[in-house]
Automatic annotation (TrEMBL):
UniProt KW keywords: Aminotransferase, Pyridoxal phosphate, Transferase
Segments forming domain Aminotransferase class V: 33-337
The protein, known as: Alanine--glyoxylate aminotransferase
Residues annotated for substrate binding in this entry: R347
Keyword Transferase: yes
PTM annotation (N6-(pyridoxal phosphate)lysine): residues: K198
InterPro entries reported in the protein's UniProt record: Aminotrans_V_dom, PyrdxlP-dep_Trfase, PyrdxlP-dep_Trfase_major, PyrdxlP-dep_Trfase_small, SP_NH2Trfase/AEP_transaminase
Amino acid sequence: MKSASFHPPKRLLMGPGPSDLHPRVLAAMAQPTIGHLDPAFIDLMDDIKRRLQAAFGTANELTMPISGPGSAGMEACFVNLVEPGDVVVVCVNGVFGGRMKENVERMGGHAVLVEDAWGSPVDPAKVEAALAAHPGAKALAFVHAETSTGVQSDAAALCALAAKHGALSIVDTVTSLGGIPVAVDAWGADAVYSGTQKCLSCAPGLSPITFSPRAVEAVKARKTKCPSWFLDFSLLLGYWGGGAKRAYHHTAPVNALYGLHESLVLLEEEGLEQSWARHALQHRALVAGLEAMGLGLPVAPAHRLPQLNAVTVPDSIDEAAVRAQLLSRFGLEIGAGLGALAGKVWRIGLMGQSASPAHVMACLTGLETVLAEMQAPIATGRATGAASQILFG
């Protein structure tokens, strides 16, 4: 077989992640690799940490990117905080709350479930009741932005309940960070993890995390050894801690970290609040176009994620065939439903660089074209005009 380099097709990424990367991020990742203990790289690590603190809204000393995707950040939180026998209240209103439960059980903990319907936010009253019924619970774990359903839960209220009952809060902000307000210190959140491939518009493969002083104390007070060597914070801090002297732990993904740094520079240049506003505006435009077309969104407006939109598939329409047509003809990727919503919704992402008027218009045009050809019960000729009215007045 003839040897040949790989050249990926050009796509518009509007699924649940990854999102499109800014050309500056791609260029940053193509810079020459240097050693992971090079003094210049140590300086870069410090700047990444500072910029992540700003993005998370925290002064936490333990703030760093885990070398691995958001799932690694999730596991890092649980593997460092949960010991055998610990009780953890876990909120499940979608796929990723279920993964939190799985982590608790794999660490030998006992997961107390607070379940809400897929498409609904976590109910603080149910959480309060669960924490009251389990005094001494080690932690409360919940997903701020549930990627499988497009629902946002009230992180401030849930973290306050955890603190009231003496529990740590473990918060998934994988789809939140950079797209909607994340305010770790204002929430009083203890262990928070995210991902780089969503609203930060960086390549997949890194998971920013931050631990409060209270969470750090809990790690130090463990009675058992952390069961993961790679994710053990007592070891990782020797590498990601402050100062020029760093202890070798693992070979960091140097070029990926170049990309993360550039994405954080871009976020700082735009401004956090401006980024949140941009995501909200593109969401309103997309929803206006979808509704003008006659498509519905199953999540109540007050709880919708602007960066991840669940859209109800019309009756008699093969949702997978629609996605396949969008990809092959328009180079446009949207996501399928997961779990209880499989086959029932599409998930349309407006994340980072993918939260733009061009993406909104391309998505509405492609979706209308394919659905009309499939004789779906939609109105044609209205969607882009409705979106333009929101975007341009």
